[in-house]
Amino acid sequence: MSSFELTPEQEEFRKVVATFADEVVAPEATEFNAAGRFPVEIVRQMGEMGLFGIPFSSTYGGMDGDYLTLCLAIEELGRVDQSIGITLEAGVGLGAAPIDEFGTDEQKQRWLPELCRGEKLGAFGLTEPGGGSDVFGTARTRAVQDGDEWVIDGSKQFITNAGTEMTSVVTITAWTGEREMTSIIVPIDTPGVAIAPPYRKVGWHASDTRELTFDGVRVPVTNTLGERGAGFRQFLKTLDDGRIAIAALAVGLIQGCVDECVRYAGEREAFGGPIGRQQAIAFKIADLEVAAQTARQMYRYACRRKLAGLPYKREAAIAKLYSSEQAVTAAREAAQVFGGMGFTTETRVGRFYQDAKILEIGEGTSEVQRMLISRDLGL
Ligand SMILES: Cc1cc2nc3c(=O)[nH]c(=O)nc-3n(C[C@H](O)[C@H](O)[C@H](O)COP(=O)(O)OP(=O)(O)OC[C@H]3O[C@@H](n4cnc5c(N)ncnc54)[C@H](O)[C@@H]3O)c2cc1C
Description:
four-stranded antiparallel beta sheet; 3 domains; Butyryl-Coa Dehydrogenase, subunit A, domain 1; Butyryl-CoA Dehydrogenase, subunit A, domain 2; Butyryl-CoA Dehydrogenase, subunit A, domain 3; 16% strand; single chain; 9 strands; binds flavin-adenine dinucleotide; 379 residues
């Protein structure tokens, strides 16, 4: 681990989360993934540890930590289980962060304390059945003002943490006028909100992902997040930050592949000795280590730029693109090191093989990242 550049507090916290990941999450991961079960008892423990409040002010129940500390926690959880890692990433980055960053003091007072303490979970609904990459061109959800209420009609697809027993709120984007998009905070139990059953996904089996539909849903106009018409700008900013966190999640997966492969290649024997003595296997694992270290430096660099108040859109896109593509390669190569066992979901690398693909899709596909980077280069 190249953690020498972390502050003592960050390193201490990283170790606490790593121990929790190894001792509490890892032993249960095979079971809750096989069952497709959202492990509410583990998520509540994460709440008690303060993980959902890391980057938020203690005024609202947060930990007064920074975004890098959040990413360290996501990386360490993602090293043993990606569903748990994404549950934290989405709960903080998509559920609570937009309210913290753009909400009024009253909205923060109302929603953040229970989200920061991990007693409740928030979600963010941007993607629609018509598309997620071209939101401006494909979104259909509308909100019409009727007196002092918004009346919302439409649907949102693939929303993480939308239907758990802990979910309290979803912030959605909706058209509120000609080319005017507004973010609106919707309590999940508002009449007219329908929560579909969970998707049957290729991976992230223990993460909760649902479609939400809104049929004449009425919420007060005071639930407008920040200003009316700011929705587009708000979700672009939310996704810039989210990409750093997804990169950290991908680094966790790659590091998990390194750790598991080093262990297995030392134990598993073929042709008279451990398979790790075969250069073909040892070189694969060396390449995984290269990917883990380089991808880690990239997300931390993007994160440090964010914390320093420097532009970081391009760096966040690079970190997300690079680490997610490396994670897919790492999962494939790690499964190869494990042979037949790598094709079972009994092994961590087998589960990573299922979990890796979404990293190239969620919070902006690889093509979208390349669009952002090339545009930022002036192309
Ligand atoms: C498990 C899971 C969890 C998710 N969680 C959330 C969530 O919490 N909240 C949320 O709002 N969304 C969420 N999403 C949605 C996710 O962000 C979208 O799936 C993603 O942004 C892609 O959108 P799409 O699926 O509509 O693909 P599309 O936009 O339809 O794209 C299809 C393909 O076309 C490509 N493409 C599109 N435009 C271009 C272009 N100009 N040039 C080149 N290629 C292009 C895309 O890269 C992709 O390969 C989640 C998705 C999944 C699967």
